[in-house]
Design goal:
This protein has 16 helices and 18 strands. It is of the alpha/beta class and 462 residues long. The protein has two domains: 114 residues, Urease, subunit C, domain 1, CATH 2.30.40.10; 304 residues, Alpha-Beta Barrel (TIM Barrel), CATH 3.20.20.140.
Length: 462
């Protein structure tokens, strides 16, 4: 007689969309969790015989799927959500926005401001199905880390890193030595922490080549290899960046990083839009990872996600933070990415389904995990992987009829359909109720702090 396997939590009665490379779907299935890992996946009928769970969540009428990954977010800009549009209604917005608004705003923030921004950002992420993030690099990263631990999300925090640049607030510019030392110290502080787990760690960061010296880039590249972590940067994000690299170095941005010896698997290159054919070849050769922020990237140029995915480049999806578009919903980013790829890569050659939604969903899960270098731990529902799992509603009118749960998850589900979220084996949201943070307290603190911040920001950017 087989003894039932003892587990901590059973998600029961759901349709399991594993996104495991085989497009496996288990109707009327169950997922068992022991500690912070997936211990068993199968049919409910088998679970009744084989699993003894301390607690069970009824997943009937829902789809179980891997948590989504936001591979490029600006935590500290969350409090700017919608602000640039509001300014644009009163006066002409200054270009480039990142230099005239985002960086000045970040320069104003205190440790507590960033912690509050982190609570809002990460709670928002969980509420729309994101279980893991990569911070682009911002002020007070330790405050981001504390917020991530408190909210219960998985992620990598990073320090805004600038050692040169015209028009950048002096408070945001560090000497090359201090920029390097601050990054290395941050990574060491967070290595293996996160309440005794590896859930929250830190990366190195370089804001972009325009505001980072060659000496800093080379030093950080060496540190990344020594510490075996990623460097989060922005690359090939604007024409101004291309012109800068050509004027200063006679090379395009990716070629410049390659010339410095900094282009390798440790470099995580957000946006990666304006790549020449030769630069794309360098990505394939040296294996930096990338992130397609579909809300914004199509404003910059025709992003070639489809080509990058087919050529084996490790690429995920990102929101670029709440300040840029407003939404932190990776489901919606995926829908935007698919439409954009159809317009850019499919329609010109009469290829009517160049990158199906189901493939885009893989980018949002498997691809994001690969881009962050943790595909062995997350990105699919498989026994032995970390238990980062969503239960999403499939009972709404815009889901019916449900012939194929994978189709529903990829095409009609959006963040507000997420009902329950498990991160690292812990239930952090159940039936749309956040269990780790006090939403009313967040709202109270926002109401108290935002008017003062916006008064200073308006005066600074007038």
């Amino acid at each position: 007689m087989n003894v039932p396997k003892k587990v901590d939590l059973l998600l029961s009665g759901c349709d399991v969309v594993t996104i495991d490379g085989k497009n496996s779907v288990i109707r009327d299935g169950a997922v068992a969790i022991k500690g912070n890992k997936i211990a068993w996946i199968g049919k409910v009928s088998a679970a009744r015989r084989r699993i003894a769970a301390r607690s069970t969540i009824d997943g009937r009428g829902q789809i179980a799927m891997p948590g989504l990954v936001d591979a490029h977010v600006h935590t500290a800009q969350t409090l700017l959500r919608g602000k640039i549009a509001e300014i644009g209604r009163r006066r002409q917005v200054k270009i480039p926005i990142w230099r005239n608004y985002y960086i000045p705003f970040e320069s104003m923030l205190t440790d507590e401001d960033v912690y509050l921004s982190g609570l809002l950002c990460y709670a928002n992420m969980i509420s729309v199905g994101t279980t893991c993030f990569a911070e682009a690099g911002g002020p007070h990263p330790d405050a981001m880390g504390r917020a991530a631990i408190d909210v219960g999300i998985r992620g990598f925090v990073a320090l805004n890193t600038v050692d040169q640049g015209v028009g950048v607030p002096k408070t945001m510019i560090a000497s090359t030595g201090k920029a390097y030392d601050g990054n290395v110290a941050l990574v060491k502080r967070w290595k293996g922490t996160g309440q005794g787990t590896d859930r929250v760690q830190a990366w190195l960061a370089l804001r972009q080549i325009i505001v980072c010296s060659p000496e800093l880039i080379k030093a950080m590249s060496g540190a990344a290899r020594a510490l075996d972590v990623k460097i989060h940067t922005h690359l090939c994000e604007g024409v101004y960046e291309i012109d800068y690299a050509l004027e200063k170095f006679g090379k395009r941005p990716t070629e410049y990083l390659d010339d410095l010896g900094a282009l390798d698997r440790h470099m995580h290159c957000a946006h990666s839009v304006l790549l020449s054919a030769e630069e794309m070849d360098l990505y394939v050769k040296h294996r930096p990872s990338a992130c397609h922020c579909a809300f914004n990237n199509y404003h910059i140029g025709p992003h070639r996600l489809h080509e990058m995915w087919r050529r084996g480049i490790d690429i995920g999806l990102g929101t670029d933070g709440a300040a840029s578009w407003g939404s932190l919903d990776i489901f919606q980013v995926a829908h935007m990415a698919r439409v954009g790829q159809q317009a850019v890569m499919g329609t010109p050659i009469a290829y009517r389904n160049v990158m199906p939604s189901e493939e885009i969903l893989k980018v949002a899960t498997n691809g994001g995990a690969r881009a962050l270098g943790i595909e062995k731990a997350i990105g699919s529902l498989e026994v032995g992987k970390k238990a980062d799992i969503l239960l999403v509603d499939r009972s709404q009118l815009d889901h019916a009829p449900v012939y194929d749960p994978y189709f529903v998850a990829a095409n009609t589900v959006v963040g507000r359909d997420v009902r329950t979220v498990v991160v690292d084996g812990n239930v952090v949201m159940k039936d749309r109720e956040l269990l780790t943070v006090d939403r009313q307290e967040i709202d109270r603190r926002l109401a108290e702090r935002l008017p003062k911040l916006m008064e200073r920001f308006d005066a600074m950017t007038a």
